Amino acid sequence: MKRFVLAVALAALVAASGFSVALAKPAAPPPKDIEKAVFIHYRAPGKPPWAGPKEPKEPKEAEGYKLFRGGVKWAELPVSYAINENVDESARVEIIAAFEEWDANTSEELYNDEVGTTGIAGAIRDDTNTIAWVDMDSSTIIAMCTFWYYVNTKELIEFDIEFNTQFVWGIDPDGEGEEYALTDAMDIRDIATHEAGHALVLDDLYQNQYAEMTMYGYSEYGEVKKISLEPGDIAGLQKLYGS
Ligand SMILES: [Zn+2]
Q: In this structure, is residue 86 part of a structural domain?
């Protein structure tokens, strides 16, 4: 009874004050502690001849690497991942080599040597880190790395890497950057090394001065320079996971 009287009195007070006050508490917003982000890897844009020499203004990344949100990363190592079952063995070997390139530049064991096989493809939040080829219905997006992380702790939860089937893909015959014969295909290991850097989480670099780095944000057919890490890539890796 007392509560009823109070409610009536409060309603009368609100009515008298002219305020429109909702007596019921609004529903709490859903917990927003997990965020999804995507790194999109584009084919190098062709510069029209009439375009000026000016590059888009970007903050300088003096060290040659860029962290995401100040350093989103894995809290627990090593990270396990699985390659889609439709990826043939030779491509699978290239992808694993690409991931191991990062492992070779820190004393931490970043990626589990036991690589799984999965029927899953695409960016699906399912606690499985997957790598697959998918049709992206785009002629400019080469690959994407989607990842989820806890906003408050910056702890990485999951990544999924997708390569676009709309591009021609190939494998450098000697597996190295120098003697290269592929000119009409995206080199799997080249692009995979870049994407494996995103999975750690290193951000893209777009300034010309970083064009030789693995984390440079554009690629082209025949490119192999991303296969080996450059000083900036290694500095970023070691900033996150130690030397
Ligand atoms: Zn990228």
A: yes
Q: How far apart are CA 102 and CA 46, in angstroms?
A: 30
Residue 12 lies in a domain: no
Q: The pTM is what?
A: 0.81
User: What domain count does the chain have?
Assistant: 1
Tell me, in angstroms, the distance from the centre of ligand 1 to residue 180's CA: 22
Q: In the 3-class helix/strand/coil scheme, how is 173-200 assigned residue by residue?
A: CCCCCCCCCCCCCEEHHHHHHHHHHHCC
Cβ atoms of 41 and 195 closer than 8 Å: yes
- Over residues 17-60, the pLDDT tens digits come to 444 454 566 666 555 699 999 999 999 875 444 444 444 444 45
Cα 182 from Cα 191, distance rounded (Å): 14
CB 123 within 8 A of CB 136: no
Give me ligand 1 centre to Cα 159, in Å. 13
- Are the CB atoms for 77 and 108 separated by under 8 Å? yes
CATH number at residue 221: 3.40.390.10
**What is the distance in A from the centroid of ligand 1 to the CA of 194?**
6
List pLDDT tens digits, range 156-196: 999 999 999 999 999 987 655 555 667 889 999 999 999 99
In the structure encoding, which two tokens stand for residue 184, read together?
A: 């009409």
Tokens (6 digits) for 90: 């030779």
